[in-house]
Structures are given as structure tokens and as C-alpha cells.
């Protein structure tokens, strides 16, 4: 759909679609739509089992469809073609397929956390979204309606829509599709942030903040899109690349457009200085949603950033690389330094995610095959680790819900050695200690950046990870070498859903750390097509 | 057969795994499993031995460390030398395992004890069966670990804990030597497998060969309690007596001798390294014998006797082709009689309520006749009474030492001969004070105020003692007559060479040895046997005795050479660390923490300020991009 030469409306034909290639996408979206219908037709007490079954089945089914497609004799291609000659709106290429696989696996684990009703009676989600909490701050006793054990089951279709949006986002082959996918993934997330059963006020505040700032960032993105269309006469990523190599239009349009577009992408990836929403939203959102956001949104955002930078802006990399380097440094510095003084474990992981976003930018800037595969691996590894980490966070509770204050975690190892050991493994992975996936990811990213001539950046990144290691290890020390508080929190024994999610995330963290080769091979199977 | 030789190691390793991982569930039958695995290994080793002609057969079990140029395989070498060791380790090991079921009967941790014991046997078998130096090192460290765990068995006794630590640390000193030697082989020959190292040693620079030889010797000294690393071995007697018998007399401490014999191509290639081995052996055999005269603790006397006897073995293997087979022969016979002596000592202390001080004993031969007879036979073998085991093996070493030319013949032969006399003295003193004379224990009380009731040990303990006593008497003739052992070992260490000439002829040596031993026995009787032994240790003694009681200042030497400089170094480093490194780090941490606190204020919680941050960031980003392009 080349708008510049768009003819009369009658010329629009039915686009050709490679159904086998986009089947995972279709399954997820269809399941989301069915989920909305289920909300409407099923009685309340049947919704939870139906929604859980539907969403888990659909995500697994999408994964199976993806696996079938990948193991078959596939070629990287684009689909949703308006006409035979041009490329389609979606690029189903090896990186996109890898990212889809990553998103589906992480999404499945996140759904398990969301569906859990054993840790918090009735689940982490409020029964009616309109409920308000008690006093400001919301560390309250539950009102009668809050203790009602039902839960807002809309969260399942919302998750599926967000997941579908993320998958579309990292496969989008033109900026317009990308923008629509951005909105499809964002809007459900805004809602999901406000659904916490406890601490209603903080949760709703988080939702509003995320929504306002997200809209702000989307506006930047859209403005950048407009400028780039003005420059290239097309919204296709490939056309922008062609234009950048030789056109008589002003480069101001190109670089201003790139900058504004990048803001939208960096915002979603919580890269500093566009990170400001991250700590508040991570803290306020229900922990399963935080886990979903931290793992999957990051995958989608960096998938999109990788594609845009590689496909459209490779020829101008000399100009933007120095600027993005500064962004990466700012992000790493903010994440590492501000994380030092956090006293809330969810906020601490939020700052950790900002630091990790900086490392990911480093990898994304190395426009080599190594850089691509390293970044893809990093996303996969980080997703597992952070999901499992938030899963563990949801287990440590006192009478007013999750005990996220770090002082409550003192001496945890004496009471729950298994939980403490699991969390230690995850923290070590976040710090990038060998034999965990975090080390392999960092190693691959830094190696790619080094071989692409970004040595100073790598040095800064190493310093930043050393600083960040301090606050991870501080938690380990706190758990193992401090005396537990007398009225400390109890560790809930999780049900099968949460247990599975944490176990899979932790085991993946170790497996990817010890035998990473197979995943690195998948990640480096091929490049982008356009 | 060869392909499945890993089973030798697998049996005791399996036993250790079950006993240590199985926990209390295995308490009831654990000690029997421990015995069964070792006996199984012994039977299997015997079958291997009978089907083998002693030739060298290497077999690869799996590729262990395949890293580009460094290809280390986990392989086993079945040859005359390793089979001789396998039979010693599993044979004597089986007897001592059985003995220990009785000795440790009252110990609540008996199952764990057998787990460690099996672990030791498995590691020791890896040590002697490995077909490369890295595999040997694995076993080397494994026996070190088992030794550490077992010396410290009575962990609530501070002396035992200290002794375990001392053994561990001093062994580390030797281990560093062994590790460095392996590194040198790797860097100069490119392999650590025996076959390639021995084939390639001829092309290596002589200085490097000397370095490898001396470093291996350092490793051997650490493990075998040779000068200057001998001080840990007597302290190691804090462990239970079966441990002393198996690990610190019969098998592990002879690993150094094995190492030198196994590395015979390296020592043959460099006579200077060989000379160093012989000198260490000759010096240590005198040192151990002299100190042995001064102790009143039955196990400590035997420990210094072990130091001294291993000195003989080192001296023998230091003589090169003249002595490799003799060293191994003394090692095997010593394995029998010293294990028997230790079991006897254990039996004595078992009957004497844990008492070890021979000044508090006396006249015990009536009370424990079997122990007395078996101990006595071991004693005769150790002092080299004609036609017992020690007579054949020790005399051969002394003869070979005198067979050397020039000053070497006098020094080595003289030291070995003098050592034989002193050995006869201290062992006679030990036997006289323990089994003969007045029954001093009748007027004494145990530490907790009870009367001594010496009694014979149960059959589960005496039967192994009897079997070992038979070995003490017969093993020498069996191995030595007709050069049985020397011919058997020829494929591994080369043919035994007879020296022609030397400073004193072969035919004369037996008479000299018997003569000087008789003098030793006589002196002991004059000093100890014919008069009453004071229960308290006399304090008014000559300088020589005082020096011997102070271990000839071995500990002081170690203290001055290793411990003090180490402490000074670590103090200096701590100073630098506290003042320099910590200052820097703490300053940096304070800086980061401070900036973190200041930056935190930007995170106000207000959406408007967040949006402003983003806007400023956006302006900066776009502005910077444009500046880079147009600036």
C-alpha cells in the first residue's frame, strides 16, 4: 500500500496473505476476540476456567503452529502484500520468528502467573476494575468487595491482544503497521496495570501515568513517522533505506524523523531518559502484569528497534550511532546508580531493567549478524530471568499483600531456603555472573559491540554492570546473612501455575547459561528481509 | 578385561556415593557395604592380575578435557606397577576395612567413616591406575581430601582438627610442586599422558627435566612425609587407628614413591634429579629413626618409623635402575608389616581404654596374646630379622646403596645401615615398654578415673591382624626369592640392575645389617628392658633427646621457612588492602551512593515532571542527531 502513488480506491485489491506464516498471529488474535465473547456470554463463576483454558491453549497452539512452520521448509518472506511487486506489511523472517517464539514462551509463563489464584486468594486481580482502595497509598485492609474471590477475567483477552500486538510489532515491515501494532500492544497494558486487587490507588495511579506518558510517546512516534513519510514518500522501511542513500530532500526530515521515531521505541523499551514511567508502573501494576511487561514489552520494543535501525537506517549509522551511544550510557548509568538506593524490590528490578535496556541498545547498535543474534539471545535470556524474578516477588507476603520492602527480605534464606536460592540464581543472572544466561547474553552483546568498533561503550557498560551487581548482591547478602525480622513476611507456597512459571524461568536461566549454543544458533539463523 | 578395568574404581566409588548420599538410612548395613566394595575390587584386581603378563596396556575411558590443544583423556594404565599397587591397596584395604567394623563399632558415625574410607580407596585407585599425570593428580587430590576428612574424624578434639588442617596445608605445598611439574610437561612436551611424556622427555632441555624432576619430588615429599614436609604425618595419628594403618602407613603415604617410580623415564633422563631423590630419602630415614626414639606415644613412634621407612623407599628409587624394584618391594612388604603394627597398636589402645602412652603400659603380653604375637612378628619384620619380610626388602636396599661408587656409596650405605641400627633400637624399646616389664597400668587410673582392664580384641579385629602378620613374615621371601617381583616389574620400571663393585660387597652387607640391628636391640634392652620405666617422662635429659623430642625442630623449620613469611606477606597485603584498595572502593561507593540519592529526587512521582524529562530528552536526541549531521 504505497500511499504516495495511491490510485483510486477501486484499485485496492485483496492482499495476498501467506496464512501458514502468520497463523500464530491469527490464533492469538482470534483467541483474544473469543475471550471477549466469553466474558459476555458466560456466567461469572465459569469465566475463570474458560478464559484460562482458552488463553493457555491458544498460546500453546500458536507456538505449535510456529514450530510447524519453522521446522518446515520455510523461507524468510514478507506477507500481506497489496500487489505482487512490492513487499508486504509484515516481514516473517528469521528474527521475527525467533522473537515470536520468545514472546509466546514468555507470554505463556506470564499467563500462568496471571492465572494463579493460590498465592493471593482469588488471584492478583481486582474483581471490579472500578473499585477504589481505602486510604491513600492503599496499603490497606481489604474492603468487602475486594475480598470477593472472583477476579476480573478480562485480563486474559487483554493479555492476548497485547501479546498479538507485540508479535505484530516486531514483524511490522512498514511504519504504519508498526504504529498500529504499538497501540494494540499498549492499550491493553494500560488497563492491565490498573487491575491490582490490593493497593488500588497505586495501581490506578500507575495505569494513568503509563497511559499519559504512553500517549505522549506515541505522539512522538507518529510525528516521526510523518516526517519520514515526507522524506521518503513511503512508510515502508525498505523505501526509507533507499531514499536515505540518495534523494534531494532535506536530511533534516530524515534525522528529525528518526529521532522522534526512536523516542517512541525507546520509551517502550524503558531506555533512559525515556524511562521515567518504569519504576512507578512496575511498582504499581499487579506483579504478574509487571512480569509480563518487563519480559514481553521489552522483547517487542527491541525487536522493533532492531528492525528499524537495521533495515531503514543502516546507511546513516555513522550519524546516529554516537547519539544512541549517549542514550545507552545514560540508560545504563541511571539504571545502575539509581538502583543502588532503592528499598522496594519491584522498583529495584525496574531500575535493573533500565540498565539492561542500556546494554540492549549497545547490542542493537552493532548492525552485524553477531549483534543481531546477541541481542535476540539477550532478550530471550533476560525475559526468562525477569519473569521468574517477579514470580518470586509475588510469593513473599505479609498481611497487607506482597512484602516488597527490602527490609522484609532479611534472613529469608533461614525460613525458605528454596525460594532464597531460586531468587539468588535469578539475581546472579541479572548481574551477569558466569553459568547463568545473563553472563552469556552480556558476553555476546559486548563481544559484538567490541568487534563493531564500540570499545569505549563496552568499557562503560562493564563499569555499569559492576555497579549494578552491587545491588543484586546486596539482596543476596540480605537474604543469607541477616537475621530475619521477628514479624517478617511469610513465604506462600505457590500453586502449580506459579511454581511452573518460576521453575521454567529459573531452569531456562541456568540452561541458557551452561549450554547456550543451541539458542545462539537459533538466534543467528538469518537476518531481516524487507 | 582391560576395557572394564574402570570397575576397579567404580566399586568403591559407588560405595562412597551410597554411604555418603544415603544418609542414616544406610546406618545399619553401611559398614558391610563398605567392606564388600573393597573386597569386590580386590577380587577383580586379582583376576586382572592373573590374566595379565605385566605388559603395559592403556585404555581410554572417556575424553576428559578436550580443549583445542589440550586433550586430556581419562584413561587407565594396567601394567605390572599399577597391578602391584592395586593388590596392595585393595588387599590390605579389605583387611583394614574388616578390622574397622570392629574398631569403629561404638562410633555413631561409623557409616560416614566407611563412606570416607571407600572414597579414599577409589581415589587411591585412580591415582595408581591413571595413565596420565592429570588423572594421577585427580587421585592425588582425592586421597588428600579423604585423608583430611579422616584425620579430623574426632572433630570435637582440637588436636585432631589442627592436625587435619596441618596435613592439608602441608600437602598443598607439595601439590603445588606436582601441579607446576604437570604445567611444565604440558608446555614443553604438549601432553600429560604417560606414554607421550615419557616418549618426549628425551628431546626436552636438561634444565627443564631437572625442574620437572625436582617439582615432582616436592610433590612426593608432601604426600609421603619426606623432609622438609614430614611434620604433618606424626600429627595425622590423631585419626582413628584404621586410618593410620591404611592411609598413613600402608598406601597413601607411599604415593610419593609410586610417583617417582612411575616417572622413572624422567629421573633416568636426569641424574641430578635422581640424586636429589636419594639424598632426601637418606636424610629422612635417619631423621625419622632418631625422632622415633624419643616418643612415648605408640602411634607416634610408628608414624616416625613410617617416615623413616619411606625414606628407605625414596633412597631406593633414587638409585635409579639399581633400586626401583627394591623400593617398590620394600613398599609392599612395609604395607603388610606396618599395617599390622598399626592394627596391633589399635588393638592395644582398644584394650587399654584408648590409652596410647607406652609409659603407662607394660606386661601386656599376658593380657593380649594374639596382639602380642602379631605385633611381635611385625616388629621382627620391621627390624629385618633374618628371613622375615623386612630382611629381604631392607637389606636389598642397603646393599644397593653400598653398591654405589665413591662418596655416594659411603653416604647412602652408611645412612641406611645406621638407620637400621636405630630402627632396631626404637622398635625394641617400644615392644619392651608395651608388652614386657612391670604392669605399670595396675597402679594407674584412666583419664576419667577408672581402672584399666586390658583385654584381647574381638576376632573381627584379630583375624586381619593375623593375616597381616603372616604377610609380614612371608611376603619378603615370596617377592624377593628368585627376583620374582623385580622380573614382574621389568616392563614398568626397567630391569633391576645389579651393581658390581661399590664400596662394600653384596655378600658382606647382610652380616653388617644383622650385626648393627643386634647392637640396637641390645642397647634398647640395656636402656629400657633391665630397669623400671618411670611412668612420667623424665625432664632431665640430654640435648640430643631434647632435640629428638622436638621433632628435630622440623616444625620450627617449617614455621620459619613457610609460615612466618606467609604471615608477613598476608599482613602486608591486608594493610595495602585496608588503606589503599578499600579506601578507593569505599570512596567510589560513597560517591555512587550520594549521586544515587541526589538523582532520586528527579523521580518525583509527578507525571508532569516525567513528561518534561521525556521532552527534554527528546529535544536533546533530535538536536544531537541534527547536530551530528549538519554540525
TrEMBL record, chain A:
Its membrane topology: Multi-pass membrane protein
UniProtKB keywords: Cell membrane, Membrane, NAD, Oxidoreductase, Quinone, Translocase, Transmembrane, Transmembrane helix, Transport
GO MF annotations in UniProt: NADH dehydrogenase (quinone) (non-electrogenic) activity; NADH dehydrogenase (ubiquinone) activity; quinone binding
Ranges for domain NADH:quinone oxidoreductase/Mrp antiporter transmembrane: 172-467
Superkingdom of the organism of origin: Bacteria
Localization (cell): Cell membrane; Endomembrane system; Membrane
Listed HAMAP family: NDH1_NuoN_1 (MF_00445)
Protein name from the UniProt record: NADH-quinone oxidoreductase subunit N
From TrEMBL, chain B:
Signal peptide stretch: none
Keyword Glycosyltransferase: no
InterPro entries in the record: NADHpl_OxRdtase_5_subgr, ND/Mrp_TM, NU5C-like, Proton_antipo_N
Record-annotated NADH:quinone oxidoreductase/Mrp antiporter transmembrane domain positions: 133-414
Membrane topology classification: Multi-pass membrane protein
Molecular functions per Gene Ontology: NADH dehydrogenase (ubiquinone) activity; NADH dehydrogenase activity
Ranges in coiled-coil conformation: none
Chief site of localization: membrane
Compartments it resides in: Endomembrane system; Membrane
Transmembrane segments: 6-22, 29-50, 80-101, 113-130, 167-186, 206-222, 243-261, 273-294, 301-322, 370-389, 409-432, 460-481, 508-528, 610-630
Residues of the NADH-Ubiquinone oxidoreductase (complex I) chain 5 N-terminal domain: 64-114
Keyword terms: Membrane, Transmembrane, Transmembrane helix
GO biological process: ATP synthesis coupled electron transport; electron transport coupled proton transport
Top-level division of the source organism's lineage: Bacteria
Gene Ontology CC: endomembrane system; membrane
PANTHER family: NADH-UBIQUINONE OXIDOREDUCTASE CHAIN 5
Protein name: NADH-quinone oxidoreductase subunit L
Source species: Thermocrispum agreste
Amino acid at each position: 500500500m504505497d500511499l504516495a502513488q495511491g490510485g483510486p480506491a477501486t484499485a485496492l485489491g485483496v492482499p495476498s496473505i501467506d496464512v501458514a506464516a502468520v497463523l500464530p498471529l491469527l490464533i492469538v488474535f482470534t483467541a483474544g476476540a473469543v475471550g471477549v465473547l466469553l466474558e459476555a456470554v458466560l456466567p461469572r463463576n465459569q469465566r475463570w476456567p474458560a478464559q484460562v483454558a482458552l488463553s493457555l491453549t491458544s498460546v500453546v497452539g500458536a507456538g505449535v503452529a510456529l514450530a510447524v512452520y519453522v521446522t518446515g521448509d520455510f523461507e524468510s518472506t514478507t506477507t500481506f502484500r497489496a500487489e505482487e511487486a512490492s513487499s508486504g506489511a509484515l516481514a516473517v523472517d528469521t528474527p521475527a520468528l525467533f522473537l515470536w517464539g520468545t514472546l509466546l514462551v514468555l507470554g505463556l509463563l506470564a499467563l500462568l502467573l496471571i492465572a494463579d489464584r493460590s498465592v493471593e486468594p482469588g488471584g492478583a486481580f481486582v474483581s471490579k476494575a472500578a473499585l477504589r482502595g481505602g486510604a491513600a497509598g492503599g496499603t490497606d485492609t481489604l474492603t468487602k468487595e475486594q475480598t470477593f474471590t472472583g477476579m476480573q477475567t478480562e485480563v486474559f483477552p487483554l493479555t492476548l491482544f497485547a501479546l498479538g500486538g507485540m508479535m505484530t510489532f516486531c514483524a511490522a515491515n512498514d511504519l504504519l503497521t508498526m504504529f498500529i501494532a504499538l497501540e494494540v500492544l499498549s492499550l491493553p497494558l494500560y488497563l492491565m496495570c490498573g487491575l491490582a486487587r490490593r493497593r488500588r490507588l497505586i495501581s490506578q495511579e500507575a495505569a494513568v501515568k503509563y497511559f499519559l506518558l504512553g500517549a505522549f510517546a506515541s505522539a512522538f512516534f507518529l510525528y516521526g513517522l510523518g516526517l519520514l513519510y515526507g522524506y521518503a514518500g513511503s512508510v515502508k522501511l525498505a523505501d526509507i533505506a533507499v531514499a536515505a542513500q540518495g534523494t534531494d530532500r532535506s536530511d533534516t526530515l530524515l534525522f528529525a524523523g528518526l529521532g522522534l521515531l526512536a523516542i517512541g521505541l525507546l520509551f517502550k523499551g524503558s531506555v533512559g531518559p525515556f524511562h521515567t514511567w518504569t519504576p512507578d508502573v512496575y511498582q504499581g501494576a499487579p506483579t504478574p502484569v509487571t512480569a509480563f511487561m518487563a519480559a514481553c514489552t521489552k522483547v517487542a520494543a527491541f525487536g522493533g528497534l532492531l528492525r528499524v535501525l537495521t533495515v531503514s537506517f543502516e546507511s546513516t549509522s555513522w550519524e546516529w550511532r554516537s547519539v544512541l551511544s549517549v542514550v545507552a550510557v545514560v540508560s545504563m548509568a541511571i539504571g545502575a546508580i539509581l538502583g543502588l538506593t532503592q528499598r522496594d524490590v519491584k522498583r529495584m528490578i525496574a531500575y535493573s531493567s533500565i540498565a539492561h535496556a542500556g546494554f540492549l541498545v549497545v547490542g542493537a547498535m552493532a548492525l552485524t549478524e553477531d549483534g543481531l543474534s546477541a541481542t535476540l539471545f539477550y532478550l530471550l535470556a533476560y525475559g526468562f530471568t525477569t519473569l521468574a524474578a517477579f514470580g518470586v516477588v509475588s510469593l513473599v507476603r505479609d498481611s497487607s499483600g506482597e512484602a516488597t520492602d527490602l527490609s522484609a527480605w532479611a534472613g529469608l534464606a533461614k525460613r525458605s531456603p528454596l525460594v532464597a536460592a531460586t531468587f539468588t540464581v535469578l539475581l546472579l543472572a541479572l548481574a551477569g555472573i558466569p553459568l547463568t544466561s545473563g553472563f552469556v547474553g552480556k558476553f555476546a552483546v559486548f563481544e559484538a559491540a567490541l568487534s563493531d568498533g564500540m570499545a569505549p561503550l563496552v568499557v562503560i557498560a562493564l563499569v555499569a554492570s559492576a555497579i549494578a551487581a552491587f545491588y543484586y548482591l546486596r539482596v543476596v547478602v540480605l537474604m543469607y546473612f541477616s537475621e530475619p525480622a521477628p514479624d517478617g513476611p511469610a513465604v506462600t507456597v505457590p500453586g502449580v501455575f506459579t511454581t511452573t512459571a518460576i521453575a521454567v524461568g529459573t531452569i531456562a536461566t541456568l540452561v541458557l547459561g551452561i549450554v547456550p549454543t543451541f539458542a545462539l544458533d537459533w538466534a543467528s539463523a538469518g537476518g531481516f528481509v524487507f | 578385561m582391560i576395557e572394564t578395568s574402570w570397575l576397579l574404581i567404580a566399586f568403591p566409588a559407588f560405595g562412597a556415593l551410597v554411604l555418603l548420599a544415603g544418609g542414616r538410612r544406610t546406618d545399619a548395613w553401611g559398614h558391610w557395604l563398605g567392606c564388600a566394595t573393597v573386597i569386590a575390587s580386590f577380587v577383580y584386581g586379582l583376576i586382572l592380575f592373573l590374566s595379565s603378563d605385566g605388559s603395559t596396556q592403556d585404555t581410554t575411558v572417556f575424553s576428559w578435557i578436550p580443549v583445542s590443544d589440550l586433550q586430556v583423556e581419562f584413561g587407565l594404565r594396567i601394567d605390572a606397577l599399577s597391578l602391584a599397587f592395586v593388590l596392595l591397596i585393595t588387599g590390605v584395604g579389605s583387611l583394614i576395612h574388616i578390622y574397622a567394623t570392629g574398631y569403629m563399632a561404638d562410633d555413631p558415625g561409623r557409616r560416614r567413616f566407611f563412606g570416607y574410607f571407600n572414597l579414599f580407596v577409589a581415589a587411591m585407585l585412580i591415582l595408581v591406575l591413571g595413565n596420565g599425570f592429570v588423572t594421577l593428580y585427580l587421585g592425588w587430590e582425592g586421597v588428600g581430601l579423604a585423608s583430611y576428612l579422616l584425620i579430623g574424624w574426632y572433630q570435637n578434639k582440637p588436636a585432631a582438627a589442627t592436625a587435619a588442617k596441618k596435613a592439608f596445608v602441608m600437602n598443598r605445598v607439595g601439590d603445588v610442586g606436582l601441579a607446576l611439574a604437570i604445567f611444565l610437561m604440558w608446555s614443553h612436551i604438549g601432553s600429560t599422558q604417560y606414554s607421550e611424556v615419557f616418549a618426549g622427555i628425551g628431546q626436552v632441555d636438561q634444565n627443564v627435566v631437572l625442574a620437572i624432576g625436582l617439582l615432582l619430588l616436592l610433590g612426593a615429599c608432601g604426600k609421603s612425609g619426606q623432609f622438609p614436609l614430614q611434620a604433618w604425618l606424626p600429627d595425622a595419628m590423631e585419626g582413628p587407628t584404621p586410618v593410620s594403618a591404611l592411609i598413613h602407613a600402608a598406601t597413601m603415604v607411599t604415593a610419593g614413591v609410586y610417583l617417582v617410580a612411575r616417572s622413572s623415564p624422567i629421573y633416568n633422563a636426569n641424574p641430578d634429579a635422581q640424586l636429589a631423590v636419594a639424598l632426601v630419602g637418606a636424610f629422612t630415614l635417619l631423621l625419622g629413626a632418631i625422632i622415633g626414639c624419643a616418643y612415648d606415644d605408640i602411634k607416634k613412634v610408628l608414624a616416625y618409623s613410617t617416615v623413616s621407612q619411606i625414606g628407605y623407599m625414596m633412597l631406593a628409587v633414587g638409585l635409579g635402575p639399581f633400586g626401583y624394584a627394591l623400593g617398590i618391594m620394600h613398599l609392599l612388604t612395609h604395607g603388610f608389616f606396618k599395617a599390622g603394627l598399626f592394627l596391633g597398636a589399635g588393638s592395644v589402645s582398644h584394650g587399654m581404654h584408648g590409652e596410647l602412652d607406652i609409659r603407662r603400659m607394660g606386661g601386656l603380653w599376658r593380657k593380649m596374646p594374639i596382639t602380642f604375637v602379631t605385633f611381635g612378628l611385625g616388629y621382627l619384620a620391621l627390624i629385618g630379622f633374618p628371613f622375615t619380610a623386612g630382611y629381604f626388602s631392607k637389606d636389598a636396599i642397603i646393599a644397593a646403596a653400598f653398591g654405589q661408587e665413591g662418596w655416594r656409596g659411603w653416604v647412602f650405605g652408611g645412612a641406611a645401615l645406621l638407620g637400621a641400627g636405630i630402627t632396631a633400637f626404637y622398635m625394641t624399646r617400644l615392644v619392651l615398654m608395651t608388652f614386657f616389664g612391670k604392669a605399670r597400668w595396675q597402679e594407674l587410673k584412666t583419664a576419667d578415673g577408672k581402672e584399666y582392664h586390658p583385654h584381647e580384641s574381638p576376632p573381627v579385629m584379630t583375624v586381619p591382624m593375623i593375616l597381616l602378620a603372616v604377610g609380614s613374615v612371608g611376603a619378603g621371601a615370596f617377592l624377593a626369592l628368585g627376583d620374582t617381583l623385580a622380573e614382574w616389574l621389568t616392563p614398568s620400571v626397567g630391569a633391576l640392575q645389579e651393581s658390581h663393585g661399590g664400596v662394600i660387597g653384596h655378600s658382606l652387607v647382610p652380616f653388617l645389617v644383622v650385626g648393627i640391628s643386634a647392637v640396637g636391640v641390645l642397647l634398647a634392652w640395656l636402656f629400657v628392658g633391665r630397669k623400671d620405666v618411670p611412668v612420667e617422662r623424665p625432664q632431665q635429659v640430654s640435648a640430643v633427646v631434647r632435640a629428638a623430642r622436638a621433632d628435630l625442630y622440623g616444625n620450627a623449620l617449617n614455621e620459619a621457612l613457610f609460615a612466618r613469611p606467609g604471615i608477613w606477606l598476608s599482613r602486608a597485603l591486608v594493610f595495602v588492602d585496608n588503606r589503599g584498595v578499600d579506601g578507593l572502593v569505599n570512596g567510589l561507593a560513597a560517591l555512587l551512593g550520594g549521586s544515587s540519592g541526589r538523582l532520586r529526587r528527579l523521580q518525583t512521582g509527578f507525571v508532569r515532571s516525567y513528561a518534561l524529562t521525556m521532552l527534554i530528552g527528546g529535544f536533546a536526541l533530535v538536536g544531537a542527531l541534527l547536530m551530528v549531521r549538519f554540525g
